[in-house]
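Can you give me the bound-state structure? Components:
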Amino acid sequence: MTSVSPAVPLNARLQLGHAAVQRVADLNGVDVLHIKGHALDPSITWEGRSSSDVDVLVRPVHLKAFLGGLKEHGWSHYIGFEAGSAFEHAATLVHESWGYVDVHRYFPGITADPSRAFELLWAERGSAEIAGIECPVPSITAQILILVLHSAPLDNRMRGARDVEAAWAHATPQQQAAVNALVGTLGAEVGYAAAMGGLENYRDRPEYALWKMLSEGGTRIDEWRARVAAAPTPRAKARLMLRAPLVNVEHLTVVRGRPPTPWEVVREFFARPLRGIREEVRAWRAGEGRRR
Amino acid sequence: MIGLRRPDDVAFVENGGVAYVACVPKGPIHVLDEVATIIWEEAVDGDRLGLSDRVAERTGATADEVRADVEVFVGHLLALGLLTASGDLGEPG
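Here's the bound-state model for the whole set.
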């Protein structure tokens, strides 16, 4: 695995990373929007906000060319789409000089067709100069929406609250109205409600359970049930159900800091269902306790 | 009779007087100390004529004291692709 040299401060490396990623996009004729981190408009972020990687949203039809371009210029695979998160939305690559880049093929919470959603965001894009290189960024309205959606999962809640405070609470009524309109245009109602309240109004939506679990917590089995429910087609549901018992080798590699041995993969294969059952029992007991 | 400018593929971040400069995406990242950062900043200003004067002004030295070092360093930056010539903007200073 490629390691990242610690000699350059992370803050500087990330800005140069945005610039490097943009150059790869330019060299390959690829459209990307830089999101979060150093790409945020100063008017909607807060002092001291840190990030650990470069995030870009790529035009879906350009995804293959972009990943190929990154690899050609020294990035290597770190975590694939399927192993990355419950949404399977981003792959992570790493470069010796530029660190980590998360390549998003869509943004979690936006349910409009990814190509159509990208085109809508691209049409309203702005530009940010990062490390002296012009980088396309979503409009400020879209940046606020992305921060709100990103704040919903429990894992992001601490920083997400400050993001929402900086981006939403300080937005003008006109900006807030524009964000609300964009929520409808991009089909982001459920993720938005998970962050801002009102999630129970969307119990009939396929992605409801997944956002409920991510924003309020749940067991491993809850997550898989929710992922299957949210999968858009019967084929996608079947694929998820077949994958559920398999060991996430990439995740195990990240956790252990090295590729697992074949024996460790076998051991994990049997350990995962047991952990899942233990979590279910704990959750059931906690529920019983609350009822008493 | 040439000026200097930052090439289109050169990215830079200035942080506390230190600059991190790189050709992207090939790298590597070059770390410029405080004086090197001053020379680079003044060089990308475009006007090579008087570069030593401007560097001297910012460092408290005289132009004659810094001229040789500035020229050597600008030569390094040109060789590394971190600077490029940009046409008739003045004589080397």
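A couple of observations. Chain A is about 55% helix and 10% strand. Chain A has a mean pLDDT of 87.
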